[in-house]
Design goal:
66% helix; mainly alpha; globular
Length: 278
């Protein structure tokens, strides 16, 4: 996943000694918790314990936190977004083929965190352009930022078209499903994994990246709001505040390719194992 390309290196002594986690260790922690969460997703029908998915609640905030750092320090924001878009397309096509070649009625693969990171990245870019336009009083820059802001909404138009076509009984279900899959190739604000709330959280992490306390406050507010609105245990994402507080601002080992490959690979392997015993 394109969530770890930060080149930030701090000077010795800039952070307290108890800040022991760099970007890579945070991502590896999130990857381990994500693996546990997806074990529950694939094997819930076999009685996988609930604590596995509870442990996965901090995953998205941690990856979004790392994404905010990565977007700020990346050498090319355009290339960053392009890689995420390609990864999102690949994940959509991969899960569509996998579910059609190896059907499993117990598991529905809607996993595509790449789309969430892409849309979040668009709004990070919007913030940069908008802030620059306001600072320099450049109306053209402001208009460009507003167009960037609208892209995730415009990309939702294909899925609404599919919804209209699905009401026509003359169109075969497989065609509707194929068109729906194609529409998912356009990451949009309404259908990204985790929803709009996580996109907003990622953008707030970016805006307040120099103010760790405000980042954690945004996380805690969203956790509290989630608990009040829907209950459940999604509020446990607030536990991601602990690794965030321990972050020392360093990049750590470069493992970008690992995270790009690990995400689809572990989902595919767990899905195939689950299907074999279904």
């Amino acid at each position: 996943m394109e969530i770890a390309n930060s080149n930030a290196l701090t000077h010795p002594g800039e952070f307290p000694k108890w800040k022991i986690l760099n970007s890579t260790t945070i991502k590896l922690t999130a990857a381990m918790l994500m693996f546990m969460d997806h074990i529950h997703q694939m094997f819930v029908s076999f009685g996988a314990p609930l604590w596995l998915t509870m442990a996965g609640r901090p995953v998205f905030p941690l990856f979004l936190f790392a994404s905010a750092e990565s977007f700020y320090y990346t050498h090319s924001k355009k290339l960053y977004l392009k890689r995420l878009l390609f990864a999102s397309w690949g994940m959509t096509i991969f899960t569509f083929i996998l579910q059609n070649v190896v059907p499993n009625e117990s598991v529905v693969l809607m996993n595509n965190a790449f789309s969430t990171f892409f849309v979040t990245g668009l709004y990070m870019q919007f913030w940069d352009w908008f802030a620059e336009g306001i600072q320099k009083k450049n109306s053209r820059q402001i208009i460009k930022s507003l167009f960037c802001c609208l892209i995730p909404f415009l990309c939702a138009l294909p899925i609404f078209l599919v919804a209209l076509l699905s009401a026509d009984e003359r169109i075969p279900f497989f065609v509707i499903r194929l068109l729906a899959t194609i529409s998912f190739l356009f990451p949009n604000i309404f259908l990204v994994e985790g929803g709009f709330a996580f996109v907003l959280l990622g953008v707030l992490f970016y805006i307040f990246r120099k103010h760790r306390g405000l980042q954690i406050a945004a996380l805690l507010l969203l956790s509290a709001a989630t608990y009040m609105v829907s209950g459940g245990f999604q509020w446990m994402m607030c536990l991601s505040a602990i690794p965030m507080a321990l972050y020392n601002g360093e990049r750590g080992a470069s493992m970008k390719k690992f995270f790009y490959l690990f995400y689809p690979a572990h989902i595919g392997i767990l899905y195939l194992i689950s299907s074999a015993f279904a």
